[in-house]
Specification:
Elements (H helix, E strand, L loop, with lengths): L3 E9 L3 H12 L4 E4 L7 H5 L28 E9 L5 E4 L16 E2 L12 E5 L3 H10 L5 E5 L9 H12 L4 E3 L2 E8 L3 E8 L5 E5 L2 E4 L3 E4 L10 E2 L2 E3 L12 E3 L4 E2 L7 H19 L14 H7 L5
Parallel strand pairs: 1-2, 1-3, 3-16, 5-12, 6-7, 6-12, 7-8, 15-17
Antiparallel strand pairs: 4-13, 9-10, 10-11, 14-15
Helix pairs in contact: 1-5, 3-4
This protein binds flavin-adenine dinucleotide (FAD).
Flavin-adenine dinucleotide (FAD) binds next to helix 1, helix 2, strand 4 and helix 5.
Length: 313
């Protein structure tokens, strides 16, 4: 059933800048809702480089963002301000090449990510891909699934060396079947996937694999998506903003972080943090016209310290 959710700020995108917006808005007592089309928070940091150290964020060890995340398609959000913190756009899974409408089998044996690993218990699973996700899930699900076949177009992988070694050990022990160099030829089944045919890249021979489930883990593309139709002033694939309050061409809609564009823009996390700090101040003014925007340092915010459980002498 559709739910109506009211807030001061609706944030689109739970990357570092969207999450920091929640923190900044919280300092001013503004209520936020944050949505993301991914099933996890963290944006590019979580999706593209989870293990990479970042050295150019001023260190605040106890900084947290209190977020409420609800990605249900059914919800309707009513907000005084909208913050677009959508980074380079929404991450969309790369579809298998040369297959017409693979999405017709979504929830019928085809998936682009693992939502719940227990779903694959005792299933015969074919995984396509040659990066970290394909390797990670082949190893992780090898205990759970009835059978796992990993298909890749060459016998070299782009994932972590350690996980590749684990995968190859599981191939040795018969827990994973490895098919290289193969590419997908056709999805088999009418209402539900019953198998997949694959073609040997070198010999061009085609063979069929029976299976219950197929996971395509070919990585992600970034798209601006529906935001393109919001009639906002754009510069290429980015949303133009002013540099006083990072507002777009529509009042009450702000764009912060990698998604925005202005002279001198740099795609860095701390630039996004600066932008959203100023934008939140303006959002406050729109919520409480005529009121002074409260300003204070987090070091002297005892309410915040209590919430975070930190002691500042
Ligand atoms: C390899 C690499 C290394 C980097 N190293 C550094 C570094 O060392 N230091 C640094 O400062 N920066 C670094 N960056 C850049 C940094 O990651 C970005 O500046 C930062 O992630 C931008 O944050 P963001 O919140 O604006 O966007 P993102 O991190 O891109 O997050 C945007 C979020 O919005 C969601 N979203 C998009 N569209 C929609 C939609 N329509 N509906 C719902 N949700 C949507 C996405 O799913 C995503 O979760 C690096 C980038 C890369 C790729």
């Amino acid at each position: 059933m559709s739910k109506k959710i009211e807030s001061d700020i609706l944030i689109i995108g739970a990357g570092p800048v969207g999450l920091f917006t929640v923190f900044e808005a919280g300092l001013l007592g503004l209520k936020c809702q944050i949505i993301d089309n991914l099933d996890k928070v963290g944006g590019q940091c979580a999706e593209l480089y989870p293990d990479k150290p970042i050295f150019d964020i001023p260190g605040v060890p106890s900084q947290t963002a209190e977020e409420h995340i609800d990605t249900s398609e059914q919800n309707e959000f009513i907000a005084t301000n909208v913050f677009i913190a959508a980074g380079g756009g929404s991450f969309e899974p790369r579809r298998p090449p040369n297959i017409i409408d693979p999405d017709r089998f979504i929830n019928k044996g085809v998936a682009y990510s693992v939502k719940d690993k227990n779903y694959y218990k005792n299933k015969n699973l074919v995984i396509f891909g040659g990066g970290d996700s394909a390797l990670d899930w082949s190893v992780e699900l090898s205990d759970l699934a009835n059978s796992i076949t990993l298909v890749h177009r060459r016998d070299a992988f782009r994932g972590a060396q350690n996980t590749e070694s684990q995968m190859r050990e599981l191939v040795e022990t018969g827990n994973i079947e490895l098919k290289t160099p193969y590419v997908i030829e056709e999805l088999l089944g009418t209402d539900q996937i019953s198998g997949v045919s694959i073609k040997n890249f070198e010999t061009k021979e085609i063979e069929s694999l029976d299976c219950d489930e197929i996971l395509f883990l070919f990585g992600l593309n970034k798209k601006l998506g529906p935001l393109e139709n919001w009639n906002l002033k754009l510069n290429g694939k980015k949303i133009s903003v002013d540099t006083e309050k990072y507002q777009t061409s529509i009042e009450g809609i702000y764009a912060v972080g990698d998604i925005n564009d202005y002279p001198g823009k740099l795609d860095l996390i701390l630039c996004g943090f600066h932008e959203t700090t100023l934008a939140v101040q303006d959002a406050y003014r729109r919520c409480f016209p005529g009121e002074r925007v409260p300003f204070g340092y987090t070091t002297s915010n005892t309410k915040l310290h209590k919430k975070l459980g930190v002691k500042v002498d």
